[in-house]
Amino acid sequence: MTGRGVRTVPPRVSVVIPTVGRPTLARAVRSVQGQTYRVAEILVVADTDAPLHLPVDERIVVLRTPPGTGSGPHRQRGIEASSGAVIALLDDDDEWHPDKLRRQLDAVESGAGDRWIASSRTEVVGPGRRRRVWPRRLVGTREPVAEYLFRFTDLRFGGAMLQTSTLCFPAEIAREVRWDDDGDKPHDEPSWLIRVQAAMPELRIIQSPEVLGTYHVGGESLSRSSVDRTVEYLDWGLRHLSGESPRVRGDYLCTSPVSAAVSARSLTGVHRAISTAVRHGRPGPWALGYAVLSAVRILLLRAWSALGVAGDRS
């Protein structure tokens, strides 16, 4: 790309795939191999010493990192090792549709310069046979990322999304604003997008209305966790959203931390999240409604579990 967004030659694209060695890794790589826009290299950054089962392809480069490094540092490791002018990210349990890269790069061609991030809609599959298309609303080209992602406008998730496996951007952006900031956990993707937008006011986010990938949601993501991570999510919101509007901050504090509390079936976590939201923000009615309904859901889950135990004993 030139400074005016006119492509002189097709850019070299490097694909970065962090992995913990899931069996779905080969499927993800095959979806890259099947692109109508040929990529230059496929960098697989492995957070495991175990053997990886990969298709044969001379473009595949395997990089190893110490176990437990985290997805953000994995992505940065791949970006630093890449040779392409453009980076495309893919998680090891997701996959791309064949025209994904070509359509995104064609959309960028109309004048975004060198400060752009491309995304798209994606098909969300799971748990079980559930299928839906997210996001319902596309982000505005210069819309604040935090406003787009965290302001709640109804009781459903999926209204706003910039999913990692849809992201494509010039490599230099990630060399200027790195992914490996430990303070970004547990939301390294939105953290990075917010930091990029703050560092580059001219940034354009170009989200294609087409469905260009598949985001697989495993049943384990909704199962009960023995660890309540509510405080971790609250800390992230207070740290990263301190400069956002009270509504955005309050809506976030009433939703993402509450989801973590539901996963752990923690009413204490829900109460802590609502209290923090009211004290440090101004949550809207939809976010507050989501938090209250989540508390009811925890009570029902506990009751159902208790009935199951009682039934086993009878």
In whole angstroms, the N-to-C terminal distance is 70 Å
Query: How much helix, percentage-wise, in residues?
Result: 25-40%
Instruction: Give the neighbour order of strands across the main sheet.
Output: 3-2-1-4-8
Unreliable residue stretches: 219-224
What does this structure look like?
The protein is of the alpha/beta class. It folds into two domains: 13-221, Alpha-Beta Complex (Spore Coat Polysaccharide Biosynthesis Protein SpsA, Chain A); 225-305, no CATH class. 39% of the residues lie in helices and 17% in strands. The protein has eleven helices and nine strands. The protein has helices at 25-33, 71-81, 100-108, 145-150, 171-176, 188-199, 230-240, 246-253, 256-263, 267-280, 285-313, and strands at 13-19, 41-46, 60-64, 86-89, 95-96, 116-125, 131-134, 168-170, 204-216. The strands form two sheets. The protein has a five-stranded mixed sheet with strand order 3-2-1-4-8, sandwiched between helices. A four-stranded mixed sheet has the order 5-9-6-7. Helix 7 packs parallel to helix 10, helix 9 packs antiparallel against helix 10 and helix 10 (267-280) runs antiparallel to helix 11. The longest helix has 29 residues, at 285-313. The chain starts with 12 loop residues before the first strand and ends with a helix. Residues 219-224 have low confidence and may be disordered.
